[in-house]
Design goal:
single chain; 98 residues; mainly alpha; 4 helices; 0% strand
């Protein structure tokens, strides 16, 4: 069981590193028409390009918020289960033997 956890941890670490180090040019690719429209709007003093960038940031941050929330709930539940198990073990040690 520990070997599976170790391999899962290593896989998730490798995947995270790959996504961080992945070629930025390909990740930043976007529709040329949208890009030209946003650039011309920004040059003319419009705010549509800023709104587009904010929308992209909101879409990018949502998965991180969801995964962080799920991870926090999982961690809290695992901690409570561990504390309950320690309490049961302590009760067994302190009970008088018949």
């Amino acid at each position: 069981m520990k070997a599976i956890k170790k391999y899962l941890y290593l896989f998730s670490l490798a995947l995270s590193l790959f996504l961080v180090v992945a070629p930025q040019q390909e990740l930043a690719a976007q529709c040329p028409m949208c890009r030209m429209s946003a650039e011309s709007d920004l040059k003319s003093g419009g705010t549509k390009a800023k709104g587009l960038n904010n929308g992209i940031l909101y879409m990018l941050i949502l998965p991180y918020i969801l995964m962080g929330t799920i991870g926090f709930i999982w961690y809290r539940n695992q901690r409570q289960v561990g504390q309950q198990q320690q309490f049961k073990d302590l009760r067994l040690l302190l009970e008088p033997l018949d």
